[in-house]
Design brief:
Length: about 350
């Protein structure tokens, strides 16, 4: 356990939740796990710091770690950090599209993606998520400060690396090593080249985030065989963190194959989860704000398996002699300035 999840960052006791060695979805035909199913087959998690594991003989397999951070125990500096994190990603909606329901497991709400993905343009190898038309408008109105945007990604990457290390340092180091060993572009890099220009804290290539009563199908992700940092933050529709009077009902995060769920309606704070989403079927259940003034902000840091495979082809000279490029931020800016 210690090699994977590392030492806890505070005196909070680590609790242990053992699940059956044969993982399975108890009611696979349900589109959404019903509350009766959750009550009958699942264990709720909603407080403390919990390691979820299974055991076969003397062998232990760690599946997940979750930690709950109540607002009444959170220092002001950390509250400020989370608010800046939310503010920056909500601001970035001015430059990107939301994720299409046709190409994802999304059923309701809105999802956005930032960072790097396998290119959707035939002449690109990989590129940053961008909406060129939105970027053109920002440049035309002189509302784009490229240095500030780059600094925002650097600051966000540093903040996320801190919280990831605190909850599961071994998993963080595993993701960090994977990124660099495969020479993948990182979330904080606005432009990619083959030089070793990583920031010391880089561990992910992309981040997705969700709002507006998000829910999705039970699924496994098409990500690399590594750990994913997931988070849930209660906010108001104006983007401010809801420290009290958060009235969103539902929205439980269910890990079907482990028969555990994060009982988010019982949490008054921020929840962080470290999980191999490419191995275990999971989903977010529907939710609703009774006042329509609140929403739950979710996020997930990952490295796409498709992008990893594409970059492996690049490093093996598959694209040599072809007119293929990277979708760098500077190139998008150049196109915007030419309009």
């Amino acid at each position: 356990m210690e090699m994977l999840f590392g030492q806890t960052h505070n005196i909070k006791k680590l609790f242990h939740c053992r699940v059956p060695k044969e993982i399975s979805d108890p009611v696979p035909h349900e589109l959404f796990s019903s509350y009766q199913t959750l009550k009958t087959f699942y264990r709720p998690l909603y407080k403390n710091k919990v390691r979820v594991f299974s055991k076969m003989g003397n062998s232990i397999k760690n599946h997940m770690i979750v930690e709950f951070f109540p607002f009444d125990h959170m220092v002001e500096d950390r509250k400020k950090g989370w608010q800046e994190f939310v503010d920056f990603l909500l601001h970035r909606r001015n430059f990107i599209n939301d994720v299409s329901k046709k190409n994802s497991s999304l059923l309701s709400g809105t999802m956005y993606a930032e960072g790097w993905r396998k290119a959707q343009v035939s002449s690109q190898i990989v590129g940053r998520y961008i909406n060129q038309k939105k970027l053109n408008q920002q440049v035309k109105k002189k509302e784009l400060n490229q240095d500030e945007e780059a600094a925002g990604f650097m600051k966000m990457g540093f903040f996320l690396s801190r919280v990831f290390q605190e909850i599961a340092s071994g998993a963080y180091e595993s993701c960090k090593s994977y990124l660099k060993e495969h020479s993948l572009p990182s979330l904080s890099q606005m432009n990619f080249n083959q030089k070793d220009n990583y920031c010391p804290d880089d561990f992910s290539s992309a981040i997705t985030y969700t709002i507006n009563d998000f829910s999705n199908k039970a699924h496994v992700d098409n990500d690399s065989d590594n750990w994913t940092l997931i988070g849930f933050i209660p906010i108001r529709q104006n983007g401010k963190i809801a420290y009290k009077d958060f009235d969103v009902e539902g929205g439980e995060f269910v890990i079907r194959d482990l028969q555990v769920f994060i009982d988010l309606p019982r949490v008054e704070g921020i929840t962080l989860v470290v999980l191999k989403t490419s191995e275990l079927k999971h989903q977010t259940l529907p939710s609703k704000s009774t006042s329509d003034l609140c929403t739950r902000f979710g996020f997930s840091c990952q490295i796409s398996k498709t992008m990893t495979n594409t970059m492996e082809k690049f490093h093996n000279n598959y694209y040599e002699g072809r007119n293929h490029t990277f979708g760098n931020y500077d190139d998008y800016i150049k196109k915007a300035n030419e309009k």
